[in-house]
From TrEMBL:
Keywords of the record: ATP-binding, Nucleotide-binding, Transport
Domain ABC transporter: 8-245
Lineage: Bacteria, Bacillati, Actinomycetota, Actinomycetes, Pseudonocardiales
Region Disordered, residue ranges: 263-317
Record-linked PROSITE patterns: ABC_TRANSPORTER_1 (PS00211), ABC_TRANSPORTER_2 (PS50893)
Domain of life: Bacteria
Identification of the protein by name: ABC transporter ATP-binding protein
GO molecular function: ATP binding; ATP hydrolysis activity
Length: 317
C-alpha cells in the first residue's frame, strides 16, 4: 500500500548533456512528465541510450535541470542531498576502508557519526547478511557482497528516496535473485527506518515485474513515458507468482512497448538552466551525503554533464 503524498514530480522536464567544447546541447530527456508517490516502488525500463540514467542522475542532483521542473518532496532539485541516495551498477567501494567504514562514509562526511548512526550501519550490514565481514576490505569480497555493501552504504544516510541504476546488472542470476529479495525486504520492512520510495532502472523485464508497483516504459531518446503498467499483485511475490500466466502477461505487455524504433537525436544550443543545480554547485557540493557518490560514479566510469567526464559503456542485461 502506498501513501498518497507525491515524492517526486517531473513536469515538462528537459535534460541533456553539454558538449565539453562549444555550446552544443544534446537532449536526453524531453517534456518528461511523471509523478512517483511516497513509498512507491517504480521501475523504469527503456531502450539503451534513451535517457534513464540521465533522469536518475538528475533526480540525484548530478545532472542539472535544463528546463521544466523537477521536485522531490515538494522542493526543486538543486544538487545532491541526504534524502536521496544513488546506487550504481558497479559498486565502487573505497579499497582502503573496511566494509563497515565504507558504510559509514556518508554519515562521516556529513559530520553525523553518532553512536546511533554506527548502530544503524551495523544493523544494515546484518540486514544484507554481511555482519561477519564488517572488518574485511573490499578486495576480500565477491561481486555480490560488494553490491550488498553498496546497498547498505546507500541506506546508511537514511534516504527517503532510493535511486538504483541497474544495481544487479553485473551479477550472476542466483546472486541477482537473492539481492532482489533482499532489496524488497529492506524496502517493505526496513527495521531501522521508515519505508522508502524506490526508483529502479533495469533492462530486465522480469526483474521489473517482480519488483515494481508500477513500471514506466520510456520511449527511445529523448525519453518520455511511453507506457505505464501498474503491477497489481500482492506482496511478497513468491516463486509461484513468478511462474504465473499473470506475471508472463505483464512481461509481454512491457516487451511489446519496448519494441519501438529509436527516434533521431536532437542537438540544439544549450538552454540556460532554470532552477537547476549549476554545474559548479553540483561539482563542489560537499554537504549532501551523496557528493561522494558523484565522485565514485565518475571513478566507476559513468560521467555526467556535471562531472564533465566521458561516459564509458555499461553492460547490458
Ligand atoms: N556525460 C555525457 N555526455 C554527453 N552525452 C551523454 C553523457 N551521458 C549520457 N549521454 C548521452 O545521453 C543519452 C542518454 O544516455 P543515458 O545513459 O541516460 O541512457 P540510458 O537509457 O541510461 O542508457 P543505457 O540503458 O544504455 O544505460 C545518450 O545518447 C548518451 O549518449
Amino acid at each position: 500500500m502506498t501513501s498518497s503524498n507525491v515524492c517526486l514530480d517531473a513536469r515538462d522536464l528537459l535534460l541533456g548533456h553539454k558538449a565539453r567544447r562549444g555550446n552544443a546541447f544534446s537532449t536526453a530527456v524531453l517534456d518528461l512528465n511523471l509523478q512517483i508517490m511516497d513509498e512507491e516502488f517504480v521501475v523504469i525500463v527503456g531502450p539503451s541510450g534513451c535517457g534513464k540514467t540521465t533522469f536518475l542522475e538528475a533526480v540525484a542532483g548530478l545532472v542539472p535541470v535544463a528546463g521544466g521542473a523537477l521536485e522531490v518532496g515538494g522542493k526543486a532539485v538543486k544538487g545532491p542531498g541526504p534524502e536521496r541516495s544513488l546506487v550504481f551498477q558497479h559498486a565502487s567501494l573505497y579499497p582502503w576502508r573496511t566494509v563497515l567504514d565504507n558504510v559509514l562514509f556518508g554519515p562521516q562526511v556529513q559530520g553525523r557519526l553518532t553512536r546511533e548512526v554506527r548502530a544503524r550501519a551495523e544493523e544494515l550490514l546484518e540486514i544484507v547478511g554481511l555482519s561477519h565481514v564488517a572488518g574485511k576490505y573490499p578486495h576480500e569480497l565477491s561481486g555480490g557482497m560488494k553490491q550488498r555493501v553498496n546497498l547498505a552504504r546507500a541506506l546508511a544516510t537514511d534516504p527517503t528516496l532510493l535511486l538504483l541504476d541497474e544495481p544487479f546488472g553485473a551479477l550472476d542470476a542466483q546472486t541477482r535473485e537473492n539481492l532482489q529479495d533482499e532489496l524488497l525486504r529492506i524496502w517493505q520492512a526496513d527495521t531501522v527506518s521508515a519505508k522508502k520510495t524506490a526508483m529502479f532502472v533495469t533492462h530486465d523485464v522480469n526483474e521489473a515485474v517482480l519488483l515494481a508497483d508500477r513500471v514506466l516504459v520510456f520511449s527511445p531518446s529523448p525519453a518520455r513515458v511511453a507506457l505505464e503498467v501498474k503491477i497489481d499483485a500482492p506482496r511478497p511475490r513468491d516463486a509461484a507468482w513468478r511462474r504465473s500466466s499473470e506475471f508472463l502477461a505483464y512481461g509481454d505487455q512491457i516487451l511489446e512497448a519496448l519494441h519501438h524504433k529509436p527516434a533521431e537525436k536532437t542537438e540544439t544550443p544549450a538552454p540556460a538552466p532554470e532552477s537547476a543545480a549549476s554545474e559548479d554547485s553540483a561539482r563542489n557540493h560537499d554537504n549532501g551525503v551523496n557528493s561522494d557518490q558523484a565522485a565514485e560514479h565518475a571513478r566507476a566510469g559513468r560521467g555526467s554533464a556535471v562531472q564533465g567526464t566521458v561516459r564509458l559503456g555499461t553492460a547490458q542485461a
